Amino acid sequence: MSLKDKLNQVTRRDFLKGVSAVGATAAVYGCGGSGSGGKTYMEEDEENRPTPPAITETVVAGAAPHNCGGRCVTKAYVKDGVIKRFVTDETPDLNIVNGESEDLPQMRACIRCRSNTQRFYRNDRVLYPLKQTGERGDVNGFVRISWEEVATEIAAKLTSLKALYGAKSFSAHYASGDGSEVAGAASCASRLLNIMGGQMTYRNDYSWPSLEHTSWFFFGQNFYFPPGKSRQDAFNSDALFLWSGNYAESIWGTNTAWYIQQIKEKGTKVFVIDGRVSQTVVSHASEHIAVVPGTDAALVQAIMHELIVNTWNTDGSLKADPWLDAEFILRYTHGFFDDEAFTLYPAIAKTYHADVDRSTDYIVPNGSSLSAYIMGTDDRLVQAGLNGDVSVYPSQIGYNNYNADDPNDNLKDALVSVYGKVAKTPEWAESICGIPAAKIRELAEIFAKKKVTLWFGGGFQRQSEGEQLPLNGYTLGVITKNFGEPGRHVGVYTDRQPLSFGVTFPTGKNNAYADFTGIYDLSKLTAPAYTPAVTRSSYPVFLWPDIAKYGGTGKSMWNDGQVKNFPTPMKAILNFGGNCLVNQCGDYNTVSGIIKDRNNVELIVTADQFMTASAKFSDYVLPAATAFEKEGACSGWLAGDTLICMNKAVEPLGEALPDYDIVAKIADKLGVLSEYTEGKTVDDWRKEAIEPLLTAYNAGMTYDEWKEKGLFHMDSSYGITDPLAAYRTDPHVGALYTPTGKFEIYSQAMVEDYEARFYDNDDARVTLEGPLHDGKTTGKFVYAIPMVIPMLEGSFADGSAADPQGYKTNYPYCLNGWHIYYRSHSTHSNNAYINEVFKKDADGNSAYLDPERELGEVWDNNVYEPIWINPADAVAEGILTGDRVIVESPRGSIYATAVVTQRVRAGWPAMGQGGWANGDNADGKPDIGGAINVLTKLRPSRICQGMTLGADTRINIRKG
How far apart are the first and last CA of the chain? Predict the structure, then answer.
């Protein structure tokens, strides 16, 4: 008997308790699942459309803390204990373009938050605790269990595992589905584990691993993220570059796209660099730079080449109108030139930290600087006295992240071009990145002569060589003086104050952290005081399946030194508020196989609102309350100029509970309830954190008034945040927290950190033409400068590809994955209204999720995700818009619906991430859920071992 059959009656009864005033079917626009129903609300004509009723509901202020980066104002209209509809901010809208005295825009929510009734009131909500009695992944193996039973069993299992393996075998899994900053789902789970003695610790995240990792070494270890400067400062710039950021869809701070439009209207030219015609390109770009996905580093190096050749003649003499300032570059950066340059400028300090020896221990040898690499064998900078030699770098580089246990993994022996002796001219780059050489020269002149604000998104670094573009991009900004002054910036943006006002929920001390010192060799570091400590006792979050399979065994799936030295297996996972366990991780089929095996992880507990693709692999699934069924607080990612109160609007449906209460039940059975709650409710914790902030920021309101209003909105009196201004003003006083105190373009610290993580960095197959900082001429797997390295599964503009794994013949296309408008990662994937708008059935008609669908199914048949295909590719494959297609990679296959469009490049079909995998590949069928992570790989990026899921997947596509 299926779970649906076993639980149907009780599910309907519990469901209807909460929605009787709405009606189960009326709660979901679109009826007759699988596309067989009648007209929807959206299809009714104006004459017959019902007149909106008078508003009689109670309005409750709040927000939906999705991980889209917005977390915008969302108000619930409640009647008879049921949310009838959602609206957004209705306060006056003051803006800069219209000459208003204040910059106070409405905090408007998009369709995701406004359509939340379509998600909250569904038959397939998890409404009571479930226990898996069969194999993990078998939804029909779940049975209902009481809260008393489930809390007792989970507590007993945690106690047993701690006795056997220690608290260091526990993990509060990476999760971002609940972004509440007070008693958020993942933080509640983490607090419990720390009370029990601690847990293993991951670093980075899935979204920004390469940006974060490279920021620590380029800008300083205190920059967890690249420097964030207030959005409002971009009004002072001459040009705004949005690099791989789709702010009109992914939001990243309420109103970011709105600010971009204002900046454009005031006369600033907005360049959007993206491999796809995104909604940001359509709506906000003055000019679209359509780079081939994953080749951005070649574009940047060609721009820098053009800057150099417009500064120095071939004999090394300075041009009349130089585009670069060598003295400025040497003062603020380390490694753009060889140390030889200091003979020309002896008054410039080699380091701003007296405890770092720059004479012998931390050097940039002849021919090893970035400018030497960019110029190849062109010796004009040698003649200028800025470099001691032309490039010492080789033509090829190898790979260190291979699977030694897989005889079919030929990456161990593979080599790929890194163009060590090639001048990175615009013509050279054109064939790689697809941008005409003339346009590259135009861009170089803009960076040289204009005040440029450069905002990085995250798409370009979600690939196998994801560290290269951030490092190259940071360099482009700083050598052109675009930092630390009004209108000049390189990094990301924030608002007038930093993220979230510092609102936190205390997770306590992790006493197991000290148990992981054996995964890092401090003796490798020349300047440990300035090298990030975060990598020393933690593992990259993207490698959690490697830990789950091989932790404590001395082995690693990807030859990772820290995993091989990991002291313990991963035995218990608390997965609260996340679908990253399987669905949002790479290579769904491999990961699901790892966690199906209970010999690996012995306990998996998920708290969620639905039976997601990850939840079904759990031992226990606990029903979590939605954002409007509990209390909290939130603000945008980095654009934190507002603090939003999340008020409880309605009681949770069925037996669902807030995550704080769920964890409290387990804590009670563990005998640590008083230590967990400290006698406080969520509102007590929230008041304790926020009341002082209302005073500090002159909010002019009490805590209770803030709860009633739902919003504290900072005004322009708080000014502009620029974390690099002090360094620009006086680099001696404002020195960065890097070994040299400068922007580190040649990052010896980054290489040493890689080696300290037990990676063998010497590749004897490759020989250099001069020594690096370690005195060796042996090739490396990781070099100290940013390079141009082809993606593992990418392609170039001219159709060539590195293809070190030999995939191109059977998988001729490259998949570009993006954060799509109708989801926040995987949240809202089952939102009925949004699915109706964007998804099709096998015949190309609008497809509807079945409103009568019960708990026990992950995805509906005949409801397919769209995939964008260029007309040239569609003609070649005989595909038309609306056709159902099969998309296949070396790792799995999925169904999708074709959308033939010029908005994607030929050879690069594109598909939104976040669909829910159904697991059909196990039965030899394409997965109906459309999760692109059925297709993507689990192999991490080169340096930081981050996720590689965005633009680095070889596929084929055919009608199916």
Answer: 31
Position 559 scores a pLDDT of 96
User: If we measure between CA atoms, which residue out of 455, 433, 536 comes closest to residue 752?
Assistant: 536
698 — pLDDT class (breaks 50, 70, 90): confident
DSSP assigned state of 927: B
Q: Are 728 and 333 in contact (CB under 8 A)?
A: no
Query: With contact defined as beta carbons under 8 Å apart, do 949 and 936 qualify?
Result: yes
Q: How far is CA 451 from CA 8, 180, 350, 562, 918, in A?
A: 63, 37, 27, 43, 50
Give residue-wise pLDDT tens across range 287-317: 999 999 999 999 999 999 999 999 999 999 9
What are phi and psi for residue 622, nearest 5 degrees?
A: -110, 135
**Residue 796 CB partners (closer than 8 Å, separation 6+):** 292, 295, 431, 432, 433, 434, 790
Q: Is the pLDDT of residue 660 over 90?
A: yes
pLDDT digits (tens, 9 = 90+) for 524-544: 999 999 999 999 999 999 999
Separation CA 634–CA 503 (nearest Å) = 8
pLDDT attached to residue 253: 82
Q: Which residue has the higher pLDDT, 90 or 579?
A: 579
Q: Give the model's pLDDT for residue 36.
A: 40
Nearest alpha-carbon partner for 414 in 402, 423, 426, 430: 402
Which tokens sit at 81? Answer: 């204990």
Six-digit token string for 213: 């990792």
Cα 113 to chain centroid, rounded: 20
Count other C-beta atoms under 10 Å from residue 164's C-beta: 11
DSSP-assigned letter for residue 657:
B
What are the start-end ranges of the H helices in 509-587? 544-550, 561-564
Distance CA(767)–CA(29), nearest Å, equals: 65
